[in-house]
Amino acid sequence: MSIEMIPDGTAVLDDAATLRRKAFVDAARELFFANGYAGTTMSSIASKVGGSKTTLWTYFPSKEDLFAAVVDDIVAQYGDALAIDLPLDEPVRDVLRAFGNVLMTKLTATPLLSLYRLVIGEAERFPHLSETFYSRGPRRGKARAAIWVAEKMARGEIRMGDPMRAVNQFAGLCQSGLYQFAVLGLREGRDLGRLHEDIDAAVDTFYRAWCPIGNETP
After folding, report:
1. CA-to-CA distance for 49 and 40, rounded, in angstroms?
2. Is 179:104 a contact under the CB 8 Å cutoff?
3. Cα–Cα distance list, 190 to 19, 23, 78, 118, 140 (Å)
4. Which is nearest to 99 in space by CA: 5, 210, 202, 7?
5. Which residues contact 172 (CB under 8 A, 6 or more apart)?
6. For residue range 176-213, what is the model confidence (pLDDT) as tens digits?
């Protein structure tokens, strides 16, 4: 059937289905965050939207599939760090500083903090949730950054080594300050103005460890 032969009503149904799916994802996110993964049932999600569990199953065959959709939705909204430009012709410090600022601004956003707490809280009982979260967010971002680091290593701008280890260390440095307080919901984690200080310190420490021999001077 050609596009011209498709009935006009089809587009409306597609739009309605998209909105219905989003309603289920939004409801699942709210209930997951409020009650945890184990404490949320497919029936409760369907009830919150106002539909039947059978209808919900036509969109998401399992609660795990629905959780993955919640993760994808949040990453799509707050995963800017996964797509930030990493120019090869700009200085290492400048690129890392820009990357770190975007990364930490997004990681301290309430939805991502809530998602991280949910995953950590359920990791022992539902380890597949951790894999779903990590593969759809952090792993993608780090893999992309590792490609940039590897090229900078090849150019002699970063000391040779394991690119992924370097990326993991930089991410850890960025998350070593205010972020720890934010995850725990402590008052110290609300002063997001300190993020820039954390990023500057992370860039400085990383570069001191990974700068090429002879470039140790800040």
Report:
1. 14
2. yes
3. 34, 30, 18, 20, 27
4. 202
5. none
6. 999 999 999 998 878 888 899 999 999 999 999 999 87
